[in-house]
């Protein structure tokens, strides 16, 4: 009797979610006859015996942090099982192809990965593309071997109650070309739709496993607005008590204002939105296709609908100035968003991964240093060392505040005081506290969205 190939799928970090990136290929590989084990290193220790038996160990790399952690684990897995074939798949795999191959990874798979990953088992000799954007007939993810949902991020509602969160994806890739976005080098402005019945079946099994909230991890939920509308309508019909959150870009929230009431009516409680900056010059360099006025309009519309906003930012860029950072804080206060901004967002620093479209801008190419294989990015230091000193201080305030569970209002006040000093406006008053938006509590995910590489002191030190 032929033995079944033994595959171990490994996730190192998926933003606190039960890893979709293991569940989806697990379904494909099991259907192809493989024996599949799933290892989520974010919550579990590795089962060494299972790793020893593996014919194939495949690391899921959806994001920068996951890739950095995987780069530490790959040599350990090779020691445990030198015989196993190693693979890496997901968004960050192709852009780190060189590094992964140096670490001993034989197969690097980007884009739509399930079919190629399965081919490693069914047709081991087949040559595979580095990036495949083939339209796949998706299978319902197989979550049987994953840790329970209550070991992952949860949603805290304004009344303090917790909701168990499940995570799935209704589309992948993105039809936009924002220059700072890691999706662009892989998907090049394309996106792929997951069949509605597959998404609904996945939601159904998440609900059966205890989820009362779903996070849609699509890079942009409104890339396919008709798909999104039909999906949430049916989702709500089948699970009227279920809440959900989704990520939608400012441009789509503006253009699709008429669709926003449907989100509210179907259980959406939180919209994550990559605001990035209020500075038009930065938005332009990022090619975000929205303005600061668009953001203000979105804030108003969502507030009127009772939909909470989870804004994300790239607070530190090569174009940030101390005065500009203070203005950024002022705008957050004026828009009543202090209670809505996750603390880490005040300290996010532009990440320039390999292949970033930003490197096509001469000013960024001049500033970016050689690719750092440990940090997995091109480090950069601000032309004005004062801004990097401000960055360090902001980081310190945010870290200390998080460790001490400092409230968002108090943390904002500390950041304001520090930024005012750096801007030469020591003692300047922030916009009136009554406007900060602290009275209305918003739903929050226990693992806020972010992915950044904090530079080392050496990387921040001014060049001599
Ligand atoms: S809209 Fe969002 S996901 Fe799409 S390219 Fe821009 S930043 Fe990336």
Automatic annotation (TrEMBL):
- Keyword annotations: Iron, Iron-sulfur, Metal-binding, S-adenosyl-L-methionine
The reply on keyword Transmembrane is no
Task: Give start-end of the signal peptide.
Answer: none
Q: Which cofactor does it need?
A: [4Fe-4S] cluster
Q: Which residues form the Radical SAM core domain?
A: 160-374
> Could you name the domain of life of the organism this protein comes from?
Bacteria
Q: Which NCBIfam families match?
A: rSAM_CUAEP
Q: What is this protein called?
A: CUAEP/CCAEP-tail radical SAM (Seleno)protein
